[in-house]
User: Which sequence fits this backbone?
């Protein structure tokens, strides 16, 4: 309760351009509860918003992790902090430490994969993404992430398998359908891609997405008349969902 009140009051202090008063709110919580990692994270965020250096903010987040090593929010905050600064070496190191502390936390494992991909370590990222699918075997998003990593590694057969599993789990999700189409086109399988586009049209007949996908596939194959016909159908449909 102290922290919720302190956070709300600190936000008002910042709006009034009183950063020192905002800082005092969190410090007040820490006087009562010296190991409150969330209050430490509040101070780190405040420092970042008021011009603190990258190192200063990272130190503050590190203090929160030291106070509560099993706190996933603090672990994720440090990874994100380094990633925003494009310090991927530090982000990967923070992710590795987070996974060592919380090996079964799916969000941390996914974040590790993301920063590994950003750092150019595709093979390690694929290992992390495979682990993610083990932690979330029924989540289409996990298999989408794995397929995207496999595409980055140019492992098209594996990407196709992952995309198909994602489709099994979420057959009507547009992100899943688009991914499956992209993989099929990478594999030079336009007929399969067209079948997927037409499945979208059947499932969502009033959405232009399936017709746009068909038009793009036909255009890629230089079937210009078919492409124009598909694009014309798309223009007659409703605005796609955001």
Assistant:
């Amino acid at each position: 309760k102290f922290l919720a009140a302190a956070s709300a009051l600190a936000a008002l202090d910042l709006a009034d351009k009183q950063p020192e008063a905002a800082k005092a709110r969190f410090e007040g919580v820490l006087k009562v509860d010296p190991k409150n990692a969330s209050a430490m994270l509040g101070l780190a965020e405040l420092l970042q918003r008021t011009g603190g250096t990258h190192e200063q903010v990272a130190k503050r987040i590190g203090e929160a992790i030291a106070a509560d090593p099993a706190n996933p929010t603090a672990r994720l905050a440090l990874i994100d902090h380094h990633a925003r600064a494009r310090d991927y070496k530090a982000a990967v190191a923070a992710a590795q430490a987070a996974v060592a502390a919380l090996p079964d936390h799916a969000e941390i494992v996914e974040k590790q994969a993301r920063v590994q991909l950003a750092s150019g370590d595709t093979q390690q990222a694929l290992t992390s993404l495979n682990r993610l699918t083990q932690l979330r075997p029924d989540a289409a998003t996990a298999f989408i992430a794995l397929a995207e990593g496999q595409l980055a590694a140019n492992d098209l057969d594996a990407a196709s398998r992952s995309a198909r599993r994602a489709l099994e789990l979420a057959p009507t999700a547009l992100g899943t359908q688009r991914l499956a189409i992209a993989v099929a086109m990478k594999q030079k399988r336009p007929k399969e891609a067209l079948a997927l586009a037409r499945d979208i049209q059947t499932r969502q007949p009033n959405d232009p997405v399936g017709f746009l996908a068909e038009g793009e596939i036909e255009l890629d194959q230089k079937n210009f008349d078919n492409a124009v016909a598909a694009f014309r159908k798309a223009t007659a449909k409703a605005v796609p969902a955001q």
Observations:
- The radius of gyration is 23 Å.
- The first helix runs from residue 2 to 15.
